């Protein structure tokens, strides 16, 4: 009997001691929940902040890229404008030089024609000289046409390089016509020295010297 009482007392004591432990159990869980919830919230906030920073960084990169592209476009536009200005100055210079040469040779042609008229008045034969003069005048006319090709060229379209090549080709053509005109003018002067022109030897020498001097101007 005493043994049963003793066992009962021990069991009762164990139960009494265990009650506070079980009572504190739910509090631990509550504390754990209360401490975990703010951490998760903070983690979410940090994640949002990082996403915002990434978005901001992406926007800045896009803005920087856009600025770089704009600077490149501006630089390209300035370069094209410089090329156009270069072509324009080149055209103006070449046009001025070639037209001045053509006008100078046309004046010499007039002098040669004046000599031809004088020889004709004396009964001399100037057929050969007249032929060379006619060809020379045609050469000079062709040279003027070549000049007009690049003098009237639109220098402000997009094909700057193509326009520059057109200027070079037309200028080369004009110079070739001028050289041909000069050769034919010299042949005309030589033809006026022929025996059938009726020009005396002394006068032929004077004519040759004067014509050569005019051609070299």
How does this structure look, described?
Keywords: Signal. It is a single chain. The protein is an all-alpha fold and 217 residues long. It has a domain at 89-216. It is built from four helices and no strands. The radius of gyration is 52 Å and the shape is rod-shaped. 18% of the residues are buried. The model is unreliable at 21-26 and 204-213 (pLDDT under 50).
Q: Helix content range of the residues, please?
A: over 70%
Number of helices in the DSSP assignment: 4
General shape: rod-shaped
Radius of gyration: 52 Å
Helix vs. strand class: mainly alpha
* H and E string: HHHH
Total DSSP E strands: 0
Intertermini distance = 155 Å
Q: Report strand %.
A: under 5%
Mean pLDDT over the full residue set = 76
Report the major sheet: none
Give start-end ranges of low-pLDDT stretches.
21-26, 204-213
Organism: Candidatus Zambryskibacteria bacterium RIFCSPHIGHO2_02_FULL_43_14
Keywords: Signal
Biased composition (Low complexity): 206-217
Signal peptide: 1-23
In short:
The protein has 217 residues and is an all-alpha fold.
Protein traits:
217 residues, 4 helices
Task: Give the arrangement of secondary structure elements.
Elements: H1 2-121, H2 127-151, H3 160-191, H4 201-216
Helix pairs in contact: 1-2, 1-3, 2-3, 3-4
């Amino acid at each position: 009997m005493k043994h049963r009482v003793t066992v009962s007392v021990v069991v009762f004591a164990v139960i009494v001691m265990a009650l506070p432990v079980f009572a504190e159990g739910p509090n631990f869980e509550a504390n754990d929940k209360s401490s975990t919830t703010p951490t998760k919230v903070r983690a979410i906030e940090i994640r949002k902040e990082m996403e915002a920073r990434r978005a901001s960084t992406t926007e800045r990169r896009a803005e920087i890229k856009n600025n770089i592209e704009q600077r490149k476009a501006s630089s390209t536009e300035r370069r094209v404008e410089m090329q156009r200005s270069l072509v324009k100055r080149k055209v103006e210079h070449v046009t001025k030089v070639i037209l001045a040469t053509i006008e100078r040779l046309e004046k010499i042609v007039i002098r040669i024609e004046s000599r031809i008229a004088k020889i004709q008045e004396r009964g001399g034969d100037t057929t050969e000289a007249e032929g060379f003069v006619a060809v020379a005048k045609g050469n000079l006319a062709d040279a003027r046409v070549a000049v007009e090709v690049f003098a009237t060229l639109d220098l402000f379209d997009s094909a700057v390089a193509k326009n520059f090549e057109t200027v070079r080709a037309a200028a080369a053509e004009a110079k070739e016509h001028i050289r041909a005109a000069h050769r034919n003018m010299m042949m005309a002067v030589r033809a006026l020295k022929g025996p059938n022109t009726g020009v005396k030897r002394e006068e032929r020498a004077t004519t040759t010297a004067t014509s050569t001097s005019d051609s070299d101007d």
